[in-house]
Amino acid sequence: MKINSELQGAYVFSSGKNMGTFKAVGYPEDVGVFYKLEEYEGYCWIAHGRYPTNTPGWWGGAHPFTLLDWSIVHNGEISSYDANRRFIEMFGYKCTLQTDTEVITYIMDYLLRVQGLTLDEAASVVAAPFWSTIEDKTNLAEKEKYTFLRTLFASLLITGPFSIVLGFEGGLMALNDRLKLRSMVVGEKEDKVFIASEEAAIRTMEPDAQNIWAPAGGEPVIVKVKEGAF
Questions:
Q1: Which pTM was predicted?
Q2: Across the chain, what does the average pLDDT equal?
Q3: Domain for residue 47, yes or no?
Q4: Which regions of the chain does DSSP assign to beta strands (E)?
């Protein structure tokens, strides 16, 4: 962030820890050939072929967005981008990559690493339940927790249609906006889990995928590798 905002002639559009990030502008199959992805192995992969609508199509804006232990791909459009960006930049983050997905990565880093929230708690901030839903909760401890999180991090509520997949060391989390304005489907096959915008993408990867289901809006899907095994 310091390089992008202060140094002339240098630019960083990917950074991470214990991960590989591959960005490009072009057809996905050409990108795979260019980076020789068949030579890599990993227990968790996230990918997105993005068609730019409101932002430039350039390498820095290509998905995924990575920072430290977090990697994000995102489908949709964030109407709360300015409010989210203004809040997160108060804590030293700088949004310079000309796309709304970047701010999601920084929000998750802030909530999970800096604030120490759990994945479930972070999901309840960015896709917060409606006040009426919180009021209807019968568990007093849950009601107080969700009220506290929604009040404290009000500016980190992400509005607009979105589905995101967050990769981290040891697993991933998928999340829809609370109104489920973007599709997201989950499938399983033995020890593998597939998450995509539509079932056809899962069937392409694994024709015999089982337990195909669509998560509810605002319901996080958290997948972790078994300890000591991928």
A1: 0.91
A2: 90
A3: yes
A4: 65-67, 70-76, 162-168, 171-176, 185-189, 192-196, 210-213, 221-224
